[in-house]
Amino acid sequence: MSKIIVTTLLLTSLAGSMSWAEPVLNIATFNNYPYHYSKSGIVKGEAVEILDCIMSALSRKFTLTAYPRTRAIQLAKSGMLDGLLSFQSSGTEYLKSVASNPIVFERWNIYYSSGLKNNSRTNWKSILDVSRLGSVRGGSIDAWLLNRNFHPNHRVSGFDQLLKMLYQKRIDAFLADERSTESTISEVFRGHDFLFEKKFVTFSPISIHFNKNNFSNSGFIDNFNSQIYSCRPKPIELKHYEREFILEKSRAIFSEIISSNTIIEKVLKSNSIFPNNIKEYEIDKLEKKWNNQKSGGEGFLVKSVTQSKESEILRQALNSTEGVVLEIIVMNKHGFNIASTGITSDYYQGDEEKYGSTYQTGSNAIHQSDVTFDDSTNSFGAQVSFTLNNNGVKIGAVTFTIDVYRAFQLEGLEALD
To answer: Do residues 390 and 316 both lie within one domain?
Structure first.
């Protein structure tokens, strides 16, 4: 029988006498990689630390128990759990749960033997197809592989076994989280050379899947989500060569857009309409008008930005990228949207880095944001912004939101590694 690891009770802040009247939340996770345990049997790792921080901020107590994956899912489906700590997936609807926003993001790479034949443009799927593949039986990554018709040749009980099998060349490859894998390699193979290659496969957001019957209308999940950023302040960071890849992808599309006289003319016309010393109250008035119109997509202001011939040019550019570009925004020199592929949350961008770090910085300025997860589209987006010039004179700015995973998947970023 698979071992069940039960954590000690994680006590949260004692602030708020009402918290003691609330029941202890029963949360489960999987007792397989990528989750890790200390020698005392307590589940640990970044996701657990963030969960503890959030619950402390909410003055709630909880227990965290690690089960075999199948057992944990059965308990969640039966409603016997308050929550399940698991990777977020479109295939979790059967849990009858409501997922929190992601609390942590794993970077999954394929780790493979340095002797395996490949070149810099080899796709990770091709490596999996030709490899003797290993996985931890019943784990999240094992399920992810099986759901995509990759059938591991060796399904083992522990992650250390995978490392040793790759080291001994008994398998050719396995899929694993980068941070956890490389810290484990450092620990297990201390003082020994372990030569391997790796390629990025995907980001995996880890969420809490709360029992829908207990939490969908309570306001608890909104409160839970509101604490995530303060407990997880670190953004998703791209490596240098990954940032260069995203930049070059954006630059290619930007070159197409700046060659359009129609876009340039619209920006110049917009610049002449707004006064150079536009007042704060005037900006607020326009923002209010935008907010009133954007929900229905109607109204002159919204239509002038999203239903113009310039916006159609942007949508054509976006559609040509096979899903790599999620959004394109063109701003005038004042920081207002003059064309976009969709309805943006704000009309005025002048108080954001996409404008401040481009137009306000210089005619050749470029800004790249961190990667963020958009739970509404289930995508990882990174913004790349450029100053827009006309005959060497800066006139506005352009921002692209890039679906990072899609870009890497289609193009093979490993060519830049």
So the answer is: yes
